[in-house]
Design a protein that fits this description.
This protein has helices spanning 4-8, 10-22, 35-38, 42-51, 89-105, 107-124, 126-137, 141-148, 150-167, 214-222, 237-252, 268-275, 289-298, 322-334, 363-377, 381-388, 394-402, 439-442, 459-473, 485-498, 538-541; strands at 65-69, 84-87, 173-180, 183-196, 199-203, 227-230, 260-262, 280-286, 303-307, 313-316, 346-350, 354-356, 359-361, 408-411, 430-435, 450-456, 477-481, 501-504, 544-552. By secondary structure, the chain is of the alpha/beta class. The two termini are 25 Å apart. It has 21 helices and 19 strands. Helix 8 packs parallel to helix 9 and helix 9 packs parallel to helix 10 (214-222). It has a 7-stranded mixed β-sheet with strand order 14-15-16-11-10-17-18. Strands 7-6-5-8-9 form a 5-stranded parallel β-sheet, sandwiched between helices. It has a 3-stranded antiparallel β-sheet with strand order 3-4-19, with no helix packed on it. Helix content is 42%, strand content 19%.
């Protein structure tokens, strides 16, 4: 049977499936905001579309609406005033359950086709979503476009491709025939249907409202589940635009738009009640450990995919490109003011220093040179504001202010004035040194532009501490710089045991806190910081079941 949307986007799907098998570079969504790709007026139109929403009601026509909320506070100081519908979560759950029947009926090909059409529509509005991401998260413009737009879309498409790869292995029908000797064989017709497990709840974060939302959203949706998205109070707009696009595509296809809804909730108790509703069968969460662990402990009726806080770390033992290493690490620590779940916090350096192509460098020299590299990189205010973005949370500003009590300050944080947004809270990184024994300082995530150069006894101690940090505190990324094979082997073994991604000797245009769609496995799912990997088949396979029916045939 012809499935028009599946056939329309099949070339993209086939290429995506090939990409997840080969793990090379591929993307259908260009990451540069080029007028030649997206249109000469796309940027201005996207900006105007977002500004047109200011001080208006963002209508979605969802069930159970009782009022409006406008909680967002832009880190750039922009008064947005967008009012979002407040709906009864139980009404959203009930409507989602009713919408699931027709979604189930169109089958895997139908669902894949609709999801690919949704992603195509989202991509066409990348500039609009990027401006919304920038204003709500505090990301710089280029990161907001890339991470909030094409890179997030990559992760959504990746989830669809992995799900299709799993679902397509299951035959729709089979003739089962069992020989009976001299008697006629037993023959049965069997049908195998992929069935979603139930309502999926996706709880978004404030810093990456699309990049961290799209994987769970599309993994759940394409496998047959209705989805309720509960965005962070300070990053609703990009998610609301996404939900509106999805609902429009569903309606166009004759499907119930209540299959996907937006839950704007003020009371944490209401969120907890929604998370533990019997109909909610999966939860995707990115955020703090306290609520993440609460979900794992209490939402027992659901499979919880949680990305929590951790202490990402790096070992510097030696290098044959000292300048490149410092430049790479300076950008790593500066990008989006360290407000990334993958940014390095603890940098282990032997007390005796490190060998480099510029001679032996003492511990203090390494720390001072890194501080100078950060300061030099951010010396130009235009570069600084573009790379740093704005501080998203007042809590992060507080952590920056108190950071000096946790170690010796090598580089103090300073405020940068933003030429376009005078009320923006822009801060440069603070770099500290401390001893390995000062565990209360660095063995806790201090989210934001705060990092430590930690003095360890030697290379063996550095590797051991890196592993302990991952297994005790959790981590999404680990890095190492060494010219010695035995150190690299030791770090490889340590990260395999701890279950964390390792980056080795990065000195050019790839950074430890970046993750590439269709190639990198973001979140191994083996340490306390994450219990799922976006690219892993396990991320999608447990979201559906195969239900069969059978009957005798002549």
């Amino acid at each position: 049977m012809s499935v028009p949307l599946f056939e329309k986007h099949q070339a993209t799907l086939d290429a995506a499936v090939n990409a997840i098998h080969t793990r090379g570079f591929w993307t259908p969504y260009p990451e540069l905001p080029s007028p030649k790709v997206y249109g000469e007026t796309a940027n201005e139109e996207g900006k105007r579309a977002v500004e047109a929403l200011f001080n208006t009601e963002f209508t979605l026509n969802q069930p159970g609406q009782s009022g409006w909320r406008a909680p967002e506070r832009s880190p750039y100081g922009v008064e947005m005033g967008v009012r979002y519908p407040v709906c009864d979560p139980v009404a959203l759950v009930e409507a989602a359950g009713k919408a699931q029947t027709a979604w189930q009926r169109i089958g895997p090909r139908g669902r894949v086709g609709v999801c690919l059409e949704i992603l195509d529509r989202i991509n066409k509005r990348s500039f609009e979503i990027a401006h919304a991401v920038m204003l709500t998260s505090g990301q710089g413009w280029m990161m907001a476009f890339q991470a909030g737009g094409p890179h997030a879309q990559d992760r959504g498409l990746e989830a669809v491709a992995v799900a299709w790869d799993e679902m397509s292995r299951i035959p729709e029908t089979a003739i089962w025939e069992k020989p009976q000797g001299k008697n006629p064989p037993l023959r049965m017709q069997k049908h195998f249907e992929i069935v979603g497990r139930g309502v999926a709840l996706v709880i978004g974060c404030s810093t990456f409202p699309t990049w961290n939302t799209y994987p769970g959203l599309f993994a759940a949706l394409v496998t047959g589940n209705p989805v309720i998205i509960k965005p962070h109070d300070n990053a609703i707009l990009p998610v609301a635009i996404t939900v509106r696009i999805i609902r429009e595509v569903l309606a166009e296809q004759g499907l119930d738009p209540d299959l996907v809804s937006l839950a704007v909730i003020e009371d944490p108790a209401v969120t907890r009640a929604l998370a533990t509703h019997p109909a909610v069968k999966s939860i995707d969460f990115t955020g703090g450990n306290a609520f993440g662990q609460w979900l794992i402990d209490n939402a027992r009726q659901a499979q919880v995919y949680a990305e929590l806080a951790g202490v990402n770390n790096m070992v510097i033992e030696s290098t044959d490109n000292y300048k490149g290493m410092l430049r790479n690490l300076a950008l790593t620590l500066s990008l989006y003011s360290g407000q990334m779940c993958t940014t390095t916090q603890a940098i282990m350096v032997p007390a005796g220093g490190v060998d480099t192509d510029q001679g032996h460098k003492s511990f203090d020299e390494v720390a001072a040179d890194l501080g100078n590299a950060i300061d030099t990189f951010l010396a130009d205010p235009n570069v600084a504001t573009a790379m740093l973005g704005a501080i998203q949370s007042r809590d992060t500003l507080g952590r920056i202010a108190e950071a000096g009590q946790y170690g010796k300050i090598v580089l103090a944080s300073r405020k940068v004035e933003h030429p376009e947004f005078p009320k923006a809270e822009v801060r440069t990184p603070v770099l500290l040194t401390c001893d390995a024994a000062d565990e209360t300082s660095y063995m806790k995530e201090r989210f934001g532009p705060i990092s430590f150069v930690v003095k360890v006894a030697d290379a063996d101690a550095a590797v051991a501490l890196s592993e302990r940090l991952v297994t005790t505190c959790g981590a999404l990324t680990v890095g190492v710089h060494s010219t010695r094979a035995e150190v690299l082997d030791a770090m490889t073994d340590a990260t395999l045991r701890a279950g964390v991604a390792l980056s080795i000797n990065l000195t050019s245009g790839v950074f430890v806190n970046q993750s590439a769609g269709f190639s990198d496995y973001h979140g191994v799912g083996m340490n306390p910081a994450a219990n799922a990997a976006y690219s892993d088949s396990a991320f999608v396979a447990n979201r559906f079941r195969v239900v069969q029916r059978r009957y005798h045939v002549a």
